[in-house]
Write a structure and sequence with these properties.
635 residues; alpha+beta; Serine Threonine Protein Phosphatase 5, Tetratricopeptide repeat; four-stranded antiparallel β-sheet; 28 helices; elongated; TPR_rpt; Ycf3; TPR-like_helical_dom_sf; repeat
């Protein structure tokens, strides 16, 4: 199963302010609207700003709407009204308000900056950056906290993080109760992984206004990333309490509930997130993951389909849906989705991982290995990718390569219990019992179950090196040389031709030589030495005729290993005692024993081997495979 919980946490684009001790400087700058404003309407606009800065966004928007109803040329009221709309995620209406404000006062830097925020809220970053550049040109010499704040916001859009931090700091110096400046600076500290500074700013923001939801949301993210899940849940819950549209807090809290396996709570939160943000594809994709965890694959498929419908260009959703198809054994559809994911994002490691699993499930190990190598190329610390590479080498009896991969999997995930268990099996195959026992102990300590078992006492060992199929294939390519031979066994002074026995010929590679040397050294009553299945594939077979003769043709010069296992039944005859008869012959007692002749068979098995060197291109080599010197077995 692939667990994909990586998500960019969305930062609200609304303007959140707290009341300042002194507002005269701020008002004096904003009230240059290009139109006449009556005293009463000016006071009402000031009230809207105060409400806006105190975080009473709904009241601020309503007050600004009253001002606009009475005076449609009050640019300041459009600014405040737009801020309230942004807070409600209604960026289209906010954009319309700012266009009206700018039409009334084209040269107002703050109006131009707020327009950039509207574009950013619509995810129109090219236009937002262009508009931010224009606003920065008007904010070259900020004087008020508001101007510094807006310039910092524009610098943030332009990815000028250090400049933005400096300007948010200046805004706070001019107004120590500037709540949103604390929050915005905290978000930049988070981007720079300076979480202590971020937490300090967020604590100040909450202290100034405990009903301002955004700082709780940011604190939730910090705790979330630190895997302090209970603290993160508490912060997200506070944001949900105070924020009118807490879709992201529901989403993030659902992510944690899934990690904690509280699936019902996770589903409930994703349902709330779907109500608040019905076009957010990630909500459906992640809710599908929870259904997947519960093996509710049909429901997961519905959500993955919805996510793809909403955002057909995101590779992740195709990976997830493809995994369900694989579980349902709809392999063609699984490959189709995973290929689509790679097409959409050629650098997405999880897509190659998923397709690698497809190949592995269909026993296409070589193709799977290519994909898992791509996984660790793109994500060098991917424990999962290294473990699957270990599986494949393990299947090929390439035990040292498998051990290397399992070791990497453990390095990047010390709790990868399956990697320990599989590495133990590889150590066993190489005769490294001590290392195998250490790994099994670790597997057990991590929660794996190892039960008592009994065996025949036989050990099976393999060579440690990696077989090179290309070299073996080249050695068996067509030539002009020939090996002719005859195989016989000798028992009880009799010759037995290896009639019908299978004879194999293999090229002598470093792997085969290691196998042979290991067998000569280790094989015995309690130990068998095998070569890998892949190495054994690279052989030529012949069948001996009635006289035990065989021929291998079309060989190249080189060194070869020839082997025959001669199994047969030897017919033998024995005298079987039937009884006796005793009688008195004068003074002598005589006994006569009676026998009959009976045939029986004895199972015979002999292994004959020989290394044969061909030196010349058209050479013919003659060999005899016997248990000793049998002159009558010669060719």
């Amino acid at each position: 199963m692939i667990v994909l919980e990586k998500r960019e946490f969305i930062i609200y684009f609304a303007l959140h302010f707290k009341p300042m001790k002194r507002l005269s400087q701020f008002f004096g700058m904003l009230l240059v609207t290009g139109s006449a404003v009556s005293s009463s309407y000016g006071q009402t606009a000031e009230t809207a700003i105060t409400q806006w800065m105190e975080g009473n966004f709904k009241q601020a928007k309503n007050t600004a709407a009253d001002v606009i109803a009475a005076d449609k040329n009050n640019a300041l009221a459009y600014l405040v009204h737009a801020g309230g709309l942004l807070y409600e995620s209604n960026s289209a209406a906010a954009l319309a308000d700012m266009e009206k404000a700018i039409k009334l006062s084209p040269g107002n830097a703050l109006f131009q900056a707020e327009l950039a925020e509207c574009y950013k809220a619509q995810s129109n970053m090219p236009q937002a950056k262009k508009q931010a550049e224009k606003a920065l040109g008007l904010l070259r010499s900020p004087k008020s906290g508001m101007e510094y704040f807006m310039r910092a916001s524009m610098e943030s859009i332009q990815s000028k993080t250090d400049d933005a931090v400096a300007d948010f700091t200046k805004a706070i110096e001019l107004n120590p109760r500037y709540v949103r400046a604390y929050a915005k600076r905290a978000s930049l500290y988070m981007d720079k992984n300076q979480n202590d500074l971020a937490m300090s700013d967020l604590a100040k923001a909450v202290d100034i206004n405990s009903q301002y939801g955004y700082p709780y949301y940011l604190r939730g993210i910090i705790y979330h990333n630190q895997q302090q899940y209970d603290q993160a849940i508490a912060e997200y819950t506070k944001d949900i309490k105070y924020d009118p549209l807490p879709g992201d807090s529901y989403f993030n809290r659902a992510v944690i509930y899934r990690i904690q396996k509280k699936y019902d709570l996770s589903i409930a939160d994703y349902n709330k997130a779907a109500e608040l943000t019905p076009k957010d594809a990630d909500v459906y994709g992640n809710r599908g993951n929870v259904y997947y965890d519960q093996q509710k694959y049909d429901q997961a498929m519905v959500d993955y389909n919805k996510a793809i419908e909403l955002l057909p260009t995101k590779a992740n959703y195709y990976v997830l849906r493809g995994n369900v198809y694989r579980i349902k054994q709809q392999t063609d559809l699984a490959f189709k989705d995973h290929n689509k994911a790679i097409e959409l994002n050629p650098k997405y490691s999880f897509a190659y991982q998923a397709r690698g699993e497809d190949y592995y499930s269909t026993k296409e190990d070589d193709k799977a290995l290519v994909d898992f190598k791509k996984v660790v190329e793109l994500d060098p610390r991917n424990s999962y990718g290294f473990m699957y590479m270990g599986f494949i080498h393990h299947n090929k009896q390439q035990f040292n390569d498998a051990i290397t991969c399992y070791t990497k999997a453990i390095e990047f995930n010390p709790n990868n219990m399956d990697a320990y268990n599989n590495r133990a099996a590889c150590y066993d195959a190489l005769g490294k019992t001590k290392e195998a026992n250490v790994d099994r102990k670790k597997y057990s300590d991590l929660g794996g179950t190892i039960t008592a078992s009994g065996t025949s006492g036989k050990k099976i060992l393999y060579p440690g090196s990696t077989f090179d199929p290309a070299a073996a294939k080249a050695a068996l390519s067509r030539g002009l040389a020939t090996i002719k031979g005859r195989a016989c066994s000798k028992y009880d002074g009799l010759r037995f031709d290896a009639a019908g026995a299978k004879v194999i010929l293999m090229p002598v590679t470093p792997y085969l030589q290691e196998w042979y040397d290991l067998r000569e050294k280790k094989e015995g009553k309690t130990t068998w030495v095998y070569m890998s299945d892949e190495a054994y594939k690279y052989r030529i077979e012949a069948v001996a005729d009635a006289e035990g003769r065989f021929v291998f043709e079309g060989l190249k010069p080189g060194k070869y290993f020839v082997q025959i296992i001669h199994n047969f039944n030897q017919l033998k005859t024995a005298k079987v005692y039937d009884g006796s008869n005793s009688y008195q012959n004068g003074p002598v007692m005589q006994t006569t024993n009676y026998y009959h002749t009976e045939n029986y068979t004895v199972e015979r098995s002999a292994r004959f081997e020989k290394f044969v060197e061909i030196d010349e291109e058209s050479e013919t080599k003659k060999i005899t495979l016997t248990s000793g010197l049998i002159k009558s077995c010669a060719l």
